[in-house]
Amino acid sequence: MSSKKKTFFGVGLPYLDSKNLTGKLIVIEGTDGVGRSTQIENIKQWLEVKGYGVITTGWTRSPLMGKVIDEAKSGHTLNLNTYTLLYAADFADRFEHEIIPALKAGFIVLADRYIYTAFARSIIRGADPAWTRKVFGFALEPDVVFYMRINIEDLIPRVINSQTLTKRYWEEQAGEGIDYWESGMDLRLGEDFYDSFVEYQKRLLKEFEKMAKEFRFKVVDASRSFQETNRLLKQGILSALKNG
Amino acid sequence: MLRPFDVEHPYPGRLIIVEGIDGSGKSTQLQLLQKWLLNSGYRVFYTEWNSSALVNQAIKRGKKRNLLTPTTFSILHATDFADRLSHLIIPPLKAGMIVLADRYVYTAFSRDVVRGVHRQWVRNLYDFAVKPNLAFYFKVPIDISLNRILSARTKLKYHEAGMDLSLTDDINESFRMFQSKILEEYEEIAQEYKLVVVDATKPIKEQQTLMRHIVKENLLNYEPAPFLKKKENIYVQ
């Protein structure tokens, strides 16, 4: 693993020397229910067997902010700016406490979602895209972004099946799982959960397609079986690690 | 695309803000201004920096464990501000009230840059803010502000003195170093955003007279929102 110098997404962090970040930042993006987390868990094991140090990092899971976000969401008091900023604060916390130290120590960081998820979610809620990007200007450009692409027809049966939906229902009651906001229910895009979810996902997918071009995501067809998608991801990761 | 902070706000109310380092006397001045405005029959809405419940807990939790990075610290305050803006600043402005804000985004511009974030980044972060109609900056030398604080209470607060920046172990010296840097940032900000600079070493009454004079001029073409014009709704002390 060689250490190509990393660059910032925007103005960067004046107090961070980005020279000694010898690790790799590998991002896996994709919409809700596409199977990112399962793939990441599998890939982590696979890389560790190969001898790489690996950490994974998710979205809205920082010890500092996780609770605050849950509380804010349950109160439904979020406006657009607070929504974007809460996620930015959470990301900043994980970025500086997990991602940066791991990259300094030469780890592979597998990020389950990254700033692109924040862009898509904020933009479909009506945020100014230029502002949203500037807010996240302190982030590092990943070494590679894999986009698990799926169309809406293939996505729906994955989410609306008895196992997933039942789990979701009970976990949401327990304050876990994919929640109200992540289904776009706050936007009231449809009559009920189903209509809203479908419309929300359509809009998200459209944003991801635009970003896939702009930011040159490596697109992986995620409508295939787990095994097939897994093979494609591993292939991509191997070549990213080889090309330094 | 022009953002709210670049243009005059569209609301019938007025936003008047004060800025300055701790011990500059800005809060005293704003409170005196409020008394005068209320007494003159205006509807006034008073608001302070960093007082909403939304992220206060995270800020407190972070401060306690000293694990807030400068960037997280900065975004948390922006989040808090965004929440207050939508609940405590824009509604009274829409209602045509005079909103008095003790500290505003310039506090973040100065303090967060001293803590290490990028100057332009933090300005962009807040460009959703409503542009004030009047912004006063209370300029005071560091020794005077330190004396005022130390005579009012015995101990400096940890973060107010910038102790988390590990500039020095001596809390008074840390305050001096930290606030001096903030002062330097304020100097630039005052020019960049054309803040009204008030000499905060002058007697309280003299500063207040100047402030009232400037506010009075700004309110010449002020039209309260229709429902505030009804006599029974006007506050008379």
Report on this structure.
- The complex is a heterodimer of chains A (244) and B (237).
- In chain A, α4 crosses α8.
- Chain A starts with 23 loop residues before the first strand and ends with a helix.
- Chain A is 51% helix and 10% strand.
- Chain A has a domain at 18-153 and 216-242: 3-Layer(aba) Sandwich (Rossmann fold).
- Chain A has helices at residues 36-49, 66-75, 80-104, 115-124, 129-135, 152-159, 162-173, 193-214, 226-242, and strands at 24-29, 54-57, 108-112, 144-149, 218-221.
- Chain B has 237 residues and is an alpha/beta fold.
- In chain B, 51% of the residues lie in helices and 11% in strands.
- In chain B, α2 (53-65) packs antiparallel against α3 (70-94).
- The longest helix of chain B has 25 residues, at 70-94.
Task: Record the SSE blueprint.
The complex is a heterodimer of chains A (244) and B (237).
Chain A: E1 24-29, H1 36-49, E2 54-57, H2 66-75, H3 80-104, E3 108-112, H4 115-124, H5 129-135, E4 144-149, H6 152-159, H7 162-173, H8 193-214, E5 218-221, H9 226-242
Parallel strand pairs in A: 1-3, 1-4, 2-3, 4-5
Chain B: E1 14-19, H1 26-39, E2 44-48, H2 53-65, H3 70-94, E3 98-102, H4 105-114, H5 119-125, E4 134-139, H6 142-152, H7 171-192, E5 196-199, H8 204-218, H9 226-229
Parallel strand pairs in B: 1-3, 1-4, 2-3, 4-5
Helix pairs in contact in B: 1-8, 2-3, 4-7
